[in-house]
């Protein structure tokens, strides 16, 4: 089930809280890869916290930030970017995440 969206489509509403929506122009396959990498990074944060490894936590949180930025959920709002800027954002993020 899809979460509720604001009328402009820029945000989703989850448990009464507004969160920036993923860029809808990211093609399905790269978007799925980015979401998978985001979830792996979030699992890395949890593992680092359980291990009390501050360095690993910083690295995992940096990967979460990179994935969320690539998805358009952080950084310059995707609705303020050109199609080329949006494409470059997710391609660069995906390339960097997959290189690590």
Automatic annotation (TrEMBL):
Residues 83-92 have a biased composition (Basic and acidic residues). It comes from Lentzea cavernae. Residues 80-100 are annotated as: Disordered. This is Biopolymer transporter Tol.
